Here is the input.
Amino acid sequence: SAVISQKPSRDICQRGTSLTIQCQVDSQVTMMFWYRQQPGQSLTLIATANQGSEATYESGFVIDKFPISRPNLTFSTLTVSNMSPEDSSIYLCSVEDSPGSYGYTFGSGTRLTVV
Amino acid sequence: QKEVEQDPGPLSVPEGAIVSLNCTYSNSAFQYFMWYRQYSRKGPELLMYTYSSGNKEDGRFTAQVDKSSKYISLFIRDSQPSDSATYLCAMSAGNSGYSTLTFGKGTMLLVSP
Here is the structure.
């Protein structure tokens, strides 16, 4: 399975500011996924990031709020923009264990608190 | 009705007990079913996956899928304190990264020594 390094592990941010979360994978992967895990809620897919193309966003998530970069096959960033307390959540990146597999490997997550 | 329903718990059991964790779902297109374990302050890790209906066993863990009832289960035999974690069910209609995973909210399991 791939090994994912996600940074920062946690942060406390002021409302109105932005935070960029980094996800580094130890192998080349086609797709990387960004999830949000709000307290008491299920893991929710924010967007899918392919290298060399625009990210695909799920319903309820927009690029202006969650811009994503995917400069190469091992790295991606998710920015949470113009933050409000409602953005307080855990954000996780994920990759397929292997192409076409069922399993996904997740990073340890970024615990974001907006005050 | 949410696509995937899962009791959040917490479920508290003594060491050695048999644990049953369950999810129900409403989307009949789901064919791939997974269980993830998530320790505190960690990302989810894949425990088991099954395709369509049936059982799958791996050590102390057994996953069951009943598509006719839209019901999946994870059984843990001889539970250990190290099994204390949140267990997430997940499912998808396809077997590739192009098929979105839908997660349950997770059930917190506490196994006491």
About this structure: The interface with chain A takes residues 4, 6, 8, 32, 34, 41-46, 49, 51, 88, 90, 92, 95-97, 100-106 of chain B (CB under 8 Å). The CA atoms of residues 16 and 78 of chain B lie 4 Å apart.
